[in-house]
Design brief:
globular, Immunoglobulin-like, five-stranded antiparallel beta sheet, about 25% helix, alpha/beta, homodimer, 14 helices, eight-stranded parallel β-barrel, TIM Barrel
């Protein structure tokens, strides 16, 4: 394992009241620090051999605004800004990383296999739409029984309302949500309650508005295509500093913010032909952080490649992530529950596919996929079940539908309980999407508040085009409209009889999962699919490592009663 | 390991005198076989569900010409043609794969560690420029002592003169060189003499002229960039048939032509994000062929990524190639010998880098490369030395120079002997480039004989641009000129005193390599670099597995005498 020193970019206040400004701009002739409003307001910076420019300035206070002036002409915010008080186009602001005092020394992190994850969007989770709003609901989540929250991306995005995947300042907390100290307070409070915190981070692209990275250096490449714009330059000339930028970002959240883990968005789109893949380099940097701090950290990749390489250990040629999202478990479950066969659900729909997902986490392990029109995937033979995060819903699976319908709006009450049990009694790491626990019926729609008119119309047209294939009729809601966002905020209606009953069911299942040894075994031999009958009944056996505790779980996906005889029970 | 059936494309004569025509064209409405000249000359073909079109026709003779008619409008040669008697734009011709009778049943192949490889270009190797020409020189090669010949690509290219990397019919033998049966005779004769035969194959792109693949189906993709044109579609929709096309091609050379191995050109440009990488799929298909036939086959990748993944075993997360070219051994040797520092030689020049290459095969194993402007490579810790093919010259390193100078034209006589010893006494698999053994002074230039005027001028302009960086002055020879080719044909001057002396030296070194146990040990612990003195003297120790035979080898890269005391000898 290589041990690398990653140079920090950004404005870093030290204990002596000095601020170290450092920014990477290898092709610029000169870079100047600009402090608008102060008397002596420009500071020429010194370049080192790697192309980082530095200047140390005394007497800087937290909150001080600054820009960089590139080659005397371009005035730009800091790519590694910690705070953009006026949004993506405004000045950057200095923060004091040491201002907040953590009290979570006792906390040593949480292993992935202990996690029951609750995914939430800061803006839509509470009426306040802030980090403080999340803090106020932590006791409710504790009561539900989940053990970890996963927060959708918090990097500064254009406008106030955004899912988070349009972030353009990976180090800055989105200004609509509160301050960096609010986030630290959230993590500190969670840890006090015994909850872990995972942050969703986006290192495969930058958002389309307010992205000034290309003015600083070769952050992007045209060697690869991504659906979201230019690919990040992880393997071309000058890529060391680009890799360092994102790895430093990961280390900031994990170290300075005490995050317990990161969910790496679309890790299959980290295009990198280097001998040391950037995902592996990131995983190794995090391992070194763990060794240094004694705190457990988890890295979970979102990947749709059905390729165990991402989660295999480095000595087996893997990239060393702890876990990954297992989308196909969702697809198999969703399509069987809803009967939907459009889009990628074309590849799913039989209960036997859900059985396959119970066995391998992936459904496609090398077979021909009609939707992809090619053979797809590989068998994750040596990976314990706890390396896979499964869900009946998540922000993408709900929000990428034209009308953003949650299962609560698509399925009858009994089916919601079935979905909950399928996820929570599985040997995988379960993830709930905020509101799922009480059967929220409000949608989770795609919303933005971009400022660039051209981008807005392109986005609106794009959404309509995208849904031509998915939905026969109806109009896609306007992502820019305030209403679209407001319609997506949780109702917190836990009192209606069905909602209360479903919540009780979730609480029971979570409690059951935590306390039955059979359900705590993540080894592959601890879970057996016994039968799939009439495309309706799925019979699952689970047992603990010592075969002391055994459970036979019968999932009935039909309205009809199913009859099954356990005599002569054979694994399928 | 998956065992897949790969459908053959092409025109395959069977023992009953019928010919099975099969071609993949998934988006075509209809495909018709066209036999120009015969009376009833069109045969409608039937499509199967994968998009292959077939027809079985009786009474077809070897040599029969044919085209396919696509959607009633486009008349095209067969992408899997075995013979293009009139070149890349003309009709395809049926061949009889069973016409030649091999007599090499005794031959079971050769392990990579036994190979001393001789790379040759069919057109420039002999005055005849044919496969028969090669056959006539096999006894001379046997006398030299090499154990394997590696033939530059033989696929049908545009025109008569071409290096081979512009091939557009991977299954057809280039018509200027002779027939498929000539190639079989060559392999059969080589085996009778105890020589193995390796073929260079190009699966990362198709040549620029006469490439009709895109008329048949989605063979290409724009998701990745290559320097040589469109990337092959190894991972998009419909890619199963594309992968099968190239894997079938590999199997044809290895099985039907009895080739002992393949050199895979630029395997780093096989862009593939699939869970089962196409290189691994190819390696597994070849392993199955070996199991079926009992004949050893070797796969050697050309890759410049310094990434041991390509040659690691599948169970260690590798792709399972047997070996790879180790370009950096060359670069370290060449730049130290010649003093050249232009282009990629910028990264080399110190003798300590050659010492590093002796230790790890790669020079850059994670360090910063000034030429690439990023950290580069990884350490191949667990790979025996025999997985790396090294050379003082090869077609690329000679021919990609503006003036195509071989070492014989660049270095004094003594330095040529030093280069030979460095390669042949190394623990790696040595490769000689034709003519190197007697110090050929003729160049090996880049030559083509394209027919497309636009392509020709683009190519001529491109060569000039390319060499702007490499050479300060002079004109790049015209690749299209017949003279450029003729100047590159070997002189076979083995009589001049220096040439005869060098040849004797090569023979001695090869013989010594074959017979000294210390030189036959490919384990990493059998080779130790003891010292690098004054950037002039490299001291290498080699021993056999049982430490019975030990050799101390002193390479002096300076004109001055070097003094070195072995007392207190410590590994560096």
């Amino acid at each position: 394992m290589t041990s690398r020193i990653y140079k920090c970019q950004g404005a870093l206040l030290n204990a002596r009241g000095e601020c170290q400004f450092r920014v990477w701009a290898p092709f610029r002739e000169n870079v100047t620090l600009l402090l608008p409003g102060s008397r002596e307001n420009t500071y020429p910076m010194q370049r080192d051999e790697e192309g980082y420019w530095e200047v140390l300035v005394a007497g800087i206070r937290p909150g001080a605004l600054y820009y960089y002036l590139l080659d005397g002409t371009l005035q730009r915010p800091d790519p590694a800004s910690r705070n953009q008080p006026e949004g993506v186009h405004g000045p950057s602001a200095v923060t004091d990383p040491a201002a907040f005092t953590f009290t979570d020394d006792h906390w040593t992190g949480m292993r992935l296999e202990e996690m029951i994850i609750y995914e939430l969007h800061t803006g839509a989770f509470t009426p306040e739409g802030t980090l403080q709003g999340i803090i106020s609901r932590l006791p409710a989540l504790l009561e539900l029984g989940i053990t970890a929250i996963e927060i959708m991306p918090l990097a500064q995005c254009p406008g106030r309302r955004n899912w988070g995947y349009d972030g353009v300042y990976p180090f800055a907390l989105h200004n609509a949500y509160g301050s960096a100290d609010d986030l630290k307070e959230l993590v500190n409070t969670a840890h006090a309650l015994g909850l872990a915190v995972i942050l969703d981070v986006v290192y495969n692209h930058q958002g389309p508005e307010g992205n000034y990275l290309q003015d600083y250096g070769p952050y992007f490449t045209d060697r690869y295509c991504t659906p979201w714009g230019q690919a990040i330059n992880f393997d071309g000339a000058w890529s060391d500093a680009v890799r360092a930028f994102y790895i430093q970002n990961a280390l900031m959240w994990l170290d300075e913010f005490h995050m317990d883990g990161l969910r790496l968005d679309a890790v299959h789109a980290y295009w990198d032909s280097s001998a040391l893949h950037v995902v592996q380099e990131l995983a190794e940097a995090v391992q070194q952080l763990e060794a240094r701090t004694g705190k457990k950290k988890v890295l979970i990749g979102e990947t749709d490649l059905n390729n165990p390489r991402y989660i295999n250990p480095v000595e087996k040629g893997g990239y060393g992530l702890h876990g990954q999202w297992a989308d196909e478990f969702h697809h198999a479950l969703h399509s069987r529950l809803t009967g939907e066969r459009n889009g990628y659900y074309e590849d799913f729909g039989c209960l036997s596919q859900l059985a396959a997902a119970f066995e391998h986490a992936y459904v496609y392990t090398g077979q021909y996929s009609p939707h992809r029109k090619r053979r797809f995937g590989a068998l994750p033979e040596h990976n314990p079940y706890s390396q896979f995060v499964v869900f009946a819903q998540n922000h993408d699976q709900v929000g990428n539908r034209m009308l953003g319908e949650r299962l609560g709006a698509l399925l009858p009450f009994e089916a919601l309980k079935l979905a909950a049990a399928t996820v929570l009694l599985s040997p995988f790491v379960p993830l709930l999407f905020m509101g799922e626990e009480y059967g929220e019926r409000r949608p989770f729609l795609f919303f933005t508040s971009h400022g660039d008119p051209q981008l807005i119309s392109a986005l609106q047209a794009g959404r309509k085009r995208e849904f031509a294939a998915f939905h026969a009729g109806g109009e896609a809601p306007d992502p820019q409209s305030l209403q679209t966002f407001q319609a997506s905020v949780l109702s917190w209606d836990m009192q209606s009889p069905d909602n209360a009953a479903l919540l009780a069911c979730y609480r029971f299942l979570i409690d059951f999962r935590k306390n039955r040894p059979a359900l705590r075994n993540d080894r592959r031999e601890g879970t057996r699919v016994h039968a799939v009958l009439n495309d309706a009944l799925l019979v699952l056996e689970r047992e603990d490592e010592h075969s002391q505790d055994r459970l036979l779980i019968l999932f009935n996906f039909d309205r009809q009663e199913q009859v099954w005889h356990s005599a002569g029970m054979q694994p399928v």
